[in-house]
Amino acid sequence: MLEIVQKFAEEGYQIEPEALELINSFPGGVNQVVEQVLRRLDSSTVVVRAEDIAAFEPALRKMLFEGRGRKLSPPAGMPGSAGQSFPSGAPRVAVPGLSPSSTRVAHSEGSPALLAAEAAHAGGRGLDAARPLSGVELLCDITGRSTCVGQYSDFVGYFRDRYSKLRDLLSRRINARPIESLGQNTAGREVSLIGMVMEVRTTNKGHRVVELEDPTGMVTVLFQKDSPPFEQSLQVVTDEVLGVVGVSDGSGRVFARSLIWPDLQAQNVNLTPCQGGALLLSDLHVGSKYFLEDAWSRFLSWINGEVDDPSGLAAGVQYLVIAGDVVDGIGVYPGQEGDLAIKDIYEQYATAAQFLKEIPGRIKVVISPGNHDIVRQAEPQPSLPPEIRELFPPSFVFVGNPAWISLGGATSLVYHGRSIDDLVLKIPGLSYHEPEKAMVEMLRRRHLCPVYGSRVSIAPEVEDHYVIQKPPSILHCGHVHMVGITRYKGVTVVNSGTWQSQTDFQKKMNIQPTPAVVPYVDLATMKVRKLLFT
């Protein structure tokens, strides 16, 4: 055991006794297990805990299983399985403007909250239960766990949870002191702080002022217009948690020298044995007179092998994920009735179910709601209600918004993306035409919806479900009807567009959607391609 502890120490990690015992419980190949764990750990980890090892256990056992010379056969319907051949023909395939890499990105499920939620959703299944790498699993969402009633204590608890989680992430990067300690004895000294942004404003002389709060007090942080961190300060938004290093004046003000966001650490390599491809969709808006039924029919013909597919991508699809707005809904915005082809929301869902039933049964379909769906408007949103779910095939998986899911071992954080409205409004340089840049800002802040009380209505739950405690393999959003794809510090970032043509409202707002474009993610390489069905 001492040798194992030493190996972790040499890589900069401490390890708990429980984690050590779990490693030794693997049947042979302990050195291999240690090596694989070290390669999978998030670089922000300091202490390796039992839950970290448990999160990797299915992949580790599979690795040891194959290492003894027994190879698993590929799932039915996958290239290489018996009797499986690719159909010839495809939609137009476009490779987006990022540099595709064969390097897998960080697979980081396994925070205690996610694992506990996973066990709950699995009916009490223990953490050591093996998870099928070819399946879809819900790791965490709000469904069935909402407790808030809107009392004062709910709001206090919600913001304390947000601050606590983000402070823990920032504490790995700076050694911060409590704000209440900034007395006269700190005058002229450099101090480090972590706080939640209460207010942001610009002075008459052009300096930037940020009011920070922690559980012990408040402080005014001044970003002078000629200082290096001034440009960064222009991107600060209210209610986010950040770190500041600066000089205290001893009377409640700090002159900032640097600004630190929680951000992701350096890219990790994901060695999880993922197979197949995932199609990332959103914003079908079935029921709208702008729904592109012809384009959807072309998509169905392709996915069912009814047209030539020279690339062979259709046969490799194992997952299809819809990030909200399955239907257009009723009464979502003024004058919507004039835009509807189907004016009954249950009929909208019945029609959507008919469209989606045409997806081949070998493909696992996941549906998350959005602001047009028949769930509460306050986020986080639960999954679609039972009377709607029963319209769809029983094999479909329904999750909340946001939701952490596992696609064959690759963690995906699915969020409809309504907070993009706030980020575009608040942060200079962002626009609806490049939604992936707003999604990168979510990752930098380690939070899906940092601004509270603006366009997104957030229910004050007992915990903040928007904090990104561990980096996912995929961040998948929708909402803005624009396709955007990038890669950020090991995370594949995808905004998946729409199946609705430009509406009159979008014309007035000069928003040109990119409809009928389907991002395809190869889960083995995380390479993303755009499939065009226009």
Would you write up a description of this structure?
By secondary structure, the chain is of the alpha/beta class. The chain has 14 helices and 20 strands. 25% of the residues lie in helices and 21% in strands. The strands form 4 sheets. Strands 3-20-19-10-11-12-13 form a 7-stranded mixed beta sheet. A 6-stranded mixed beta sheet has the order 4-14-15-16-18-17. A 5-stranded mixed beta barrel has the order 5-6-7-9-8. The radius of gyration is 24 Å and the shape is globular. The termini are far apart.
Q: Could you give a quick summary of the protein structure above?
A:
This protein has 534 residues and is of the alpha/beta class. 25% of the residues lie in helices and 21% in strands.
Question: What are its keywords?
Answer:
OB fold (Dihydrolipoamide Acetyltransferase, E2P); globular; 534 residues; 3 domains; 14 helices; alpha/beta; Purple Acid Phosphatase, chain A, domain 2
Secondary-structure map with pairings?
Blueprint: H1 2-10, E1 14-15, H2 17-24, H3 30-40, E2 47-48, H4 50-67, E3 92-94, H5 112-121, E4 136-140, H6 152-170, E5 190-202, E6 208-214, E7 217-223, H7 230-233, E8 241-248, E9 253-260, E10 277-281, H8 293-303, H9 313-316, E11 317-323, H10 345-356, E12 364-368, H11 386-389, E13 397-398, E14 403-407, E15 410-414, H12 420-426, H13 435-445, E16 474-477, E17 483-488, E18 491-496, H14 504-508, E19 517-522, E20 528-532
Parallel strand pairs: 1-2, 7-9, 10-11, 11-12, 12-13, 15-16, 16-18
Antiparallel strand pairs: 3-20, 4-14, 5-6, 5-8, 6-7, 8-9, 10-19, 14-15, 17-18, 19-20
